[in-house]
Amino acid sequence: MKSMSNVDIYTISDELDNLLSGARVDKSFQPTKDIVVVRFHVPGTGRVDLVMQCGSRIHTSQYPLENPTTPPTFPMLLRKRIKGAHVVSVKQHNFDRVVEIKVKKDKYYTLIVELFDKGNIILLDEENNIILPLKRKQWSDRDISSKKEYKFPEERGINPISVSAEDFKTLFESDSDVVRTLAINGLGSLYAEEIIERANEITEIQKNTPNNELNDNQIEALYQSLTNLFDTLKNNSIKPQIVKSENKEDVVPLDLIKYEDFEKTNYETFNEACDEFYSKKVNTSIKDVKEAAWNKKVNKFEKRLRLQQETLDNFHTTIEESQHKGEVIYSNYPTIENIINVVNTARSKNYSFKEIGKTLKNAKKQGMAEAQIFESIDKMGVLTLRIDDTSINIDPKVPIPENAEVYYEKAKKAKRKTKGALIAIENTKKQLEDVRAKKDIAMENISTPKKRVKKNLKWYEKLRWFLSSDGVLVIGGRDANTNENIVKKYLEPNDIYLHADIHGATSTAIKLNGTELNDNILKESGEFAASFSSAWSLGFTSQDVFWVHPDQVSKTPESGEFLPKGSFVIRGHRNYIRGARVKLAIGIVDYEGKRIMVGPIDALEAHCENFVVLKPGFTKKEAIAKKIINRINEDDLLTLDDIIRVLPSGKCDIDEEYHQRKKYEKN
Known about the structure:
Elements lengths: L5 H15 L3 E9 L2 E8 L3 E8 L3 E5 L11 H10 L3 E7 L5 E7 L3 E7 L5 E5 L5 E4 L3 E2 L4 E2 L20 H6 L7 H22 L16 H19 L6 E4 L4 E4 L10 E4 L3 H62 L1 H16 L4 H13 L8 E4 L5 E5 L2 E5 L5 H48 L16 E4 L5 E4 L3 H11 L5 E5 L7 E4 L7 H13 L2 H4 L4 E7 L4 E2 L14 E2 L4 E7 L2 E7 L3 E6 L1 H7 L3 E9 L1 H12 L7 H7 L5 E3 L1 H11 L1
Antiparallel strand pairs: 1-2, 2-3, 3-4, 5-6, 6-7, 7-8, 8-9, 10-11, 12-13, 12-14, 15-16, 16-17, 18-19, 19-21, 20-21, 20-22, 22-25, 23-24, 26-27, 26-28, 28-29
Helix pairs in contact: 4-5, 6-9, 14-15
């Protein structure tokens, strides 16, 4: 995959500085070993994801990558140190393939993104010491390890934005040619050739011309084409585009002569162009890695199944061969008895087993009929006989039936083992089928990356909300700011205000709009208020909730007291809903168009057929959201972020007992 050039990084850094300056740092993620994603909240814009891939790219992205269930060390450290910080600046270091993102929280931090070679991402403190690198590396002049002072790579080449004509001229004092000289001085082969192409409009220059053959006019033409090219970048007159031909695709920030005959797709920003160019390619490489991991799991079960099948086949072979050998013994009873008698007679005359063996071999050579079945005899006296191409072992010290029984017992033992082998094979087949199905789903999700598109939310979707089974809208705050808005902006004289009787809960308002208040509305609203409170994260199954009229809710504290944002004083009598159930359901409802809704079970039952019931539990939001989306996203309306956004604070589990009971009731 193409790595960003110095020119690409210059353009990207400039755009990122304009976009992210003043933005708040949110969570960080590490989808793969060399990709880190930092999420920002940009005032007036909202969520912005910045993708950084070591040695390759840095740009904003609207293609969310799948994150591991357990975050690695590096993104967890970023969350600890810089979450909540504000971006001070984003800049390219000396026109090199290094980006510095400076942020301020309790103190200044710098995130270094190295895009040369295999690259790195490094967090520095305000004294330029390394807090933690994504990859520990060491060279003779640089040590990228924790607590070491960070040193930028040695400066190479020129800064084409500010290089003087005199400094530019000195480049061509080396023993090289024009194109190589420009390329190794920070311009790369693409822009080196572009500068030569543009210079050819002034005077003729072959790209392989040796430096010592260049004249002053040619060097001046090269300098002029370089300054004209980079003036476009300095003046922000860029034309971000993806260019394509039959066998090449590239992303560039401006029109290039080299690509004038290519098919071009233009974009508003270079970040957007890079996102389209890189994200799908990276998705392919991620798919390869994920597919290899899944294949390893599949191969494990396939190998186990193969070994189990071989074992079962061996059992069947043992059964067949052992039974056959037992039958051979009985069908050749007189012949075997004769040779046993010979052995036992010889033993009675104090012949050793070795001597007996030699005697029987000689007899066999001489054509003695009784000796023709003899193969060998070991030091314990056990005979090996071959009868009709079947080799059997006979102990002359025990009766012939007992020798036959040894083989029959071996067959019975193998037959008993086949039952266990068949059960094991069926279990492995089921496990193999399950892992193949999971692989297919995982590969399909990776193969079709979904672009995150900002949705135009209704006013109530920016809050907590649900539509009661009676058709009444109930809203609640998401945080201190929206709790404040519930009372100040949305609570009207004829509405009802609810709050769980516990510290840390949403302010809830029933928007009656002329509907008469009844027990059903109160019950459902009470469950909503109870569930969107700290009772959920504490694992409670029920919680008391009180309700009052709007004129009882005040922002004016008692004398000498202070009310923090989102808090209110309740005056007068409180009505209580005792033991409101802490449980929610989630599904897609048709209310002013199809949209996701989380609310009491009764409300979801009234407005949609397919929903999932949730209870306080132990599963993280990302993991539970994946389970939910597979159950309810029938029309492909939702993304994981849509689901995560509406879930209550704290971990959840799906109430499988509820769903099993409903399934049983239907049947």
